[in-house]
Each structure stands twice: as C-alpha cells, then as structure tokens.
Design a protein that fits this description.
Layout lengths: L7 H4 L4 H19 L5 H7 L15 E16 L4 E13 L11 E3 L12 E3 L2 E6 L7 E5 L4 E13 L11 E10 L7 E5 L6 E2 L9 E15 L2 E14 L2 H19 L9 H22 L12 H32 L5 H35 L4 H30 L6 H28 L1
Helix pairs in contact: 4-5, 4-6, 5-6, 6-9, 7-8
Length: 446
C-alpha cells in the first residue's frame, strides 16, 4: 500500500483548496486499501466519492426523510422524569453521486456506512443511548439506482420527559422524542416525516404496565441556537396512567383504615385500652401507608399530588377519631367529679347570676344619673351631648357582653358526654362521603 505524505506547510494551511487536497489523498489511500475487496459495482459507485461533503453541496439543502418503529418502551420513571425506549430509526435521502445503472437496489453491510455521507442526526433530550451491536452493529444500508440511500439503525435511548404530577395518579403525561441535526443548519439539511403522522408505528401494539398510549402525532419545527437554525422533527405521544393499581394498592386500604377508626365510636367509653389501641394502630398504619406511597415519587416540594391530598384527608379523619375519644373521655371524667345539683342549688346559682347582672345594671344607672347632671350643666354644648350618648351606651354594653358570654359558655357545656359518640357516628361518615365526592369529581373532570 502506498501512502502520500504532505509537506508540513500544506498541512498547516487553512484554505479550502488545501483541505480538499487532504480529503482527496485520504480518499485515495482508502480506495487503494479496499479496492481489492469491493465488488466492481461498489468500486464504480465510490470512485471519486467524498464522504466529507454532503449531497448537493452547491445546489441547496439535502432533504432527509425520517420514520420510526417503536419496538418497546421499557421504563417510565417519575423519579428521574424520563423514559427508556428501543426504536428503529430509518433515514432516507438522495445522493446523486451514488446513482448507478440497473433496477435493483444494493443492500450493503452496515460497516460500509463509514464510506458514505450520513446525516448527523441526534436525539435532543437523550440522557444516554447506545447502538445495539449483537451480533454485529444493527445498521442497514441500502442504495437504489436513482441514488436514494436508506439508512436504518436500532438504538435504545433514555429520554427526558417533563411531567406534571399534580394529579398523580389520575394524570396524563405528554412526552416527546426530538430529532435534530447536530452540525448542518436549515441551509444545508431539511428534515421531514416520510408519511406524516403514520411515520411512527408500533405504539398501537405496546402494552405498558401503568400507562395507556392515548394519542400520538408528529410535527416539524426549527431549533434556534446561537450558531443558527437547525431542522427538528418532534414526535409527541400522550400517556394516561392506569388508576386501578393505585385504587387497590393505596385508596382502598386507606378507606378501610378510616372505617376501622370509626369502630371505636361503638365501643364503650369505659373500655379505654380497646379504644386507644384502635386509634393508635390506625394512625401508625396510615403513616406507614403514606410513606410507602411516596417511595416511587420524586422528593419535590413543588408537587402537591392528588394522592397526597387523599392520604392527608384520611389521616385527618383517623386522627380526628382518636381526638374524639380523648374529648369524650375527658368530659366523662369531669362530669363524674362534679356533684349533681338539686333544684335549690340551681335556684341559688340563678340568683347569683341575676345578682351579678343587677350589680352591673345598678352601676350603669348610677353613671347615668351622674351623666344627666353633667349634661344639664352643659346643655348648650353639642359635644357634651355626644359624650352623654357614648357613655350611656358604654354602661349598657357590659351587661350585654355578660349575657352573651353566659350563652356561649352554655353552648360548650356537654350535659351528657355519651352523646358525643352518637354525634360522631353520624358526622364522621357523612363528612367523609361528601369530601370524597368533591375529591373525585375535581380530579377526574377538572
């Protein structure tokens, strides 16, 4: 094999002619090395071919058509907010330098792709990806007589997907797969979907664990960067989460725990260990259930998820049932320590209350008389009249306030603490049902 060496002055040059000379010498040495193993047809096609120059280099942009088959969507992670998919990516373009006579296409070994120009397509939001290489690199090159090139590869990529988890697990997520050209701008390369929305296939047959693919469509746009505008193809697909798993795993157990906490309303207040045991057990179990529901979700304070709201509601009802027994038990003990009042004692209490009110009234009357004397002395002054009215109203206000305070304190007085459980048996289930109706209507239909 013969190699040509360039002078150092030429290698350090930066003109276009010098670069073409270097590329030509590299092409010549490659052709000499592989000419013995290439078939005559391929030798004829690649004769004078420069893979470093795109097709139609001086005649406008080259059009590259895209199509995909989604082989599988392996994982969809809410924690990392990404999905992993295996896809078959096919690209088509026309290279006038590869035209040949005949009516049959040429299927070449994928390793010969290094001899041809191919688009520099990349996945925009890819976190990591790789080309399958078992047993060989999964590439396909097919050349048609009119110069059309079909280039297909099988890749697996982990792509970022921004998710809104406020309605989790009744949410819908829209993820995208974006394809762009890395170095060629819109003046050099144009991307298009070969069959519109039908350019992406395979989603109809996918069976995902937690999701159902509801809709998908394609779009064409441009990516604007500091270095210019680049062609971009976007594939959108909408995923709806299957809620049945979460109903059986989270919602039903939490509802049963709430119902279990209501059992204590039918247990006698004298059975302190039984009621305390039910209350504490349900609280601890609900806490464990809430912690387990958060393990598969991102630890972010920006998301108040629907499942967090429901678990918080259930925890509040369970804790409220425990507090209800504490209040009822306290009222029972307080009542047992008080002696029962007789009719005479009731009358004495009423007389004492009336005496207090009468004292306040007398003090108001005395102040009224003093105010009247003062007002007669200053009857011609309008400001004194206003002071008289304000003082008169100030005398009557303490008696009104005292009456209201007695009424309010009487409302909080529990005559029979055993009625607290009777009220709880009705109020807790009824309020829980009403809150559930509002919860499900809001998160399912709004």
């Amino acid at each position: 094999m013969k190699y040509s060496y360039l002078p150092a002055k030429i290698v350090r040059g930066n003109t276009l002619a010098q670069c073409d000379t270097v590329a030509e010498l590299m092409k010549t040495s490659t052709a000499e090395g592989k000419g013995e193993i290439l078939p005559p047809t391929i030798q004829k096609i690649t004769k004078g071919y420069n893979k470093y120059l795109r097709p139609f280099f001086d005649n406008g942009p080259v059009s590259v058509g895209m199509s995909m088959d989604i082989a599988s969507i392996d994982t969809i992670s809410e924690i990392n907010m990404d999905y992993t998919a295996t896809i078959f990516l096919r690209q088509r373009w026309t290279d006038e330098r590869l035209c040949f006579e005949g009516n049959k296409s040429l299927s070449l070994d994928g390793r010969l792709v290094e001899m041809l120009w191919v688009p520099d397509t990349f996945i925009v939001d890819s976190k990591k990806s790789f080309l399958h290489d078992i047993t060989v690199e999964n590439r396909l090159i097919r050349i048609y007589p009119n110069g059309t090139v079909l280039y297909a590869i099988r890749i697996t990529a982990t792509v970022a997907c921004s998710m809104d988890l406020t309605k989790y697990p009744m949410d819908k997520q829209t993820c995208t797969l974006q394809l762009e050209s890395w170095g060629y701008n819109i003046n050099d390369v144009q991307f298009y979907w070969t069959r519109g929305n039908d350019s992406v296939r395979g989603l109809e047959t996918l069976r995902l664990a937690q999701y159902t693919v509801e809709d998908h469509f394609t779009s064409v746009s441009e990516a604007v960067y500091e270095t210019g505008c680049y062609p971009k193809l976007v594939f959108h697909f909408e995923l709806k989460r299957n809620i049945l798993y979460f109903i059986l795993e989270t919602y039903v157990p939490s509802i049963l725990l709430v119902v279990l906490s209501w059992v204590s309303f039918w247990i006698s207040q004298s059975s302190v260990p039984a009621r305390i045991c039910i209350g504490v057990t349900t609280v601890l179990t609900m806490t464990t259930l809430m912690m387990g529901a958060r393990t598969s979700l991102p630890n972010a304070n920006c998301f108040i998820k629907a499942i967090d709201v429901y678990l918080g509601i259930c925890f509040s009802f369970i804790f409220g049932a425990l507090l209800e027994y504490a209040v009822a038990h306290f009222c029972t003990l307080h009542r047992s320590n008080l002696r029962v009042l007789t009719k005479d004692e009731d009358e004495e209490v009423e007389e004492e209350i009336n005496g207090v009110l009468a004292t306040i009234a007398n003090s108001c009357n005395v102040s009224d008389k003093i105010n009247k004397v003062d007002s007669r002395k200053n009857i011609n002054t309008s400001s004194n009249r206003k002071d008289e009215k304000s003082k008169h109203s100030g005398c009557s206000s303490p008696m009104t306030v005292m009456k209201r305070l007695f009424c309010i304190s009487d409302c909080f007085y529990v005559k029979n603490p055993y009625h607290i459980d009777n009220y709880a048996r009705l109020s807790f289930p009824l309020s829980f049902i009403i809150i559930n109706v509002f919860y499900w209507v809001y998160y399912l239909y709004f």
